[in-house]
Amino acid sequence: MRIVFMGTPEFAVPSLKLLLEKGYDVAAVVTQPDRPKGRKRELTPPPVKAFALEKGLPVLQPERMRSPAAVESVAAWKPDLIVTAAYGQILPKAVLELPRLGCVNVHGSLLPRYRGGAPIQRSIMEGERETGVTIMYMAEGLDTGDMIASVTVPIGDEDTAGTMFEKLSLAGADLLMETLPKLADGTAPRVPQDDSLATYAPNLTREDERLRWERTSRELFDQTRGLNPMAGAFTFLDGEVFKVWGCRAPEESDAKLGAEALAAAPGTVLEAGADGIRVRTGDGSLVLTQVQPAGKKALPAADYARGARLAPGTVLG
């Protein structure tokens, strides 16, 4: 079974790694172009490219997978199967029809829920207590293909998008290994998705990252976890961006508020000390534990509060 693998971020690396470890014939790897990263904006290869080159695999990085040149390059490898995992582009019909065994995708949600480019982040931000991975046949729509197999993975309060990316990438790689023999011998099932149950997880925008303090403590807690360690949640302090990387679960941090605190507007700092920075929310309060002021590195909220002498009554927005 000759395989072309398509993936881009760290999420995809365990699947490619296991394919090689299990002796599958990976003809080549397709990934996104190198992108500028960091303050110096240096061109950086995606994790899948770095791993593929380390293993001596041919790498293709088309700006658009729909281009005739990209399609011809993939066709030249004569794949029996194309495996994708967080590749980042929708495959055109010309590519979907190339392999005799079809194209399958390792998707980071329990389809048909959270179709789209940010299923892991949004499942946390929406307060889900579990998610998972689905292996699916690819179709021309957005994550609409028939399902082959799935596995459920719980989400705990201690989890962030970072920890869930790691858990789901490993679960997806294992599930892919269980699925490949069935694809090879023709016994893999095809379970159509129920479109009436579909929800969507579009890529995150700047507005998704902003903390709106009138929301509930739980919603703000989940939002912060779902944005860590990627973009990070943010608010404003004295007109400058103030990032929030961590906070305590509301059940642990919220206490009975006095009359003065209850009268405070959402976003008001109620306390700032060794316990962190307690902020008024729409239904109580939330303790921030890890913050990052503009132009500075992230640090414990207690250290920031001590150094900046953050006074109760300060309003975040």
How would you characterize this protein structure?
This protein is elongated. A seven-stranded mixed sheet has the order 5-2-1-6-7-8-9. It folds into two domains: 2-197, Rossmann fold, CATH 3.40.50.170; 206-308, Methionyl-tRNA Fmet Formyltransferase, Chain A, domain 2. The protein is built from eleven helices and 15 strands. The longest helix is centred in the middle third of the chain and has 25 residues, at 161-185. The model has no long low-confidence stretch (mean pLDDT 95). Strand 3 and strand 4 (42-44) form a beta hairpin. The chain is α/β, with parallel strands linked by helices.
Summarize the structure.
This protein is 29% helix and 25% strand.
Task: Write out key terms for the chains shown.
317 residues, alpha/beta, Rossmann fold, Methionyl-tRNA Fmet Formyltransferase, Chain A, domain 2, six-stranded antiparallel β-sheet, 11 helices, 15 strands, 29% helix, protein biosynthesis, transferase
How many beta-strand elements? 15
Mean pLDDT: 95
Give the C-alpha Rg. 22 Å
Terminal-residue CA separation: 55 Å
Strand portion, in percent? 25-35%
Query: Which sheet architecture does the biggest sheet show?
Result: 7 strands, mixed
The CATH topology of the largest domain turns out to be: Rossmann fold
